[in-house]
Amino acid sequence: MPADLGTTNLWLAIIAVANVITLLALAVAAFVVIRLTKKAGAVVDKVEQQAAPVIARANAIVLEAQHVVDDAKHMVAKVKHANDAVRQTARRQLWPVLGVMRGVSAIASTLTQSNGRPRPTADELARERFMNEGGGSHARERNL
Fold first, then answer.
1. Helix, strand, coil percent content, the chain, rounded in steps of 5
2. Is 130 in contact with 136 (CB distance < 8 Å)?
3. Which of 24, 25, 73, 130 might form a disulfide with 135, Cβ 3.0–4.6 angstroms?
4. CB 129 within 8 A of CB 137
């Protein structure tokens, strides 16, 4: 049995050494990670310092663009209001003129259509329509 304890002690020693090596590896890895984190933090701080003026200029440009957009919207609203006012004024002012012009046009067309001849009466128009439709030949047929 003492030989068995010797083998067990040997395996326990090997396991202990392996754990110490693992612990040292983890400690070195943690140290490396901490150093890299500090370096990365320093790089991020430098980038933030260098980017701060660019970000400030970009924010100023965005604010200026927003002001330009607001001014453009305001101008569009003003132009739309002015356009509506002009349309309403034109409608109120020009409808009577348009009516007079249409009346004058109707009078002129009526006067130019007569060509110096008197307009035919309703009876003359009816007789002409009757003759154009062949009414005169039907009235003369004997079979009626």
1. 90, 0, 10
2. yes
3. 130
4. no
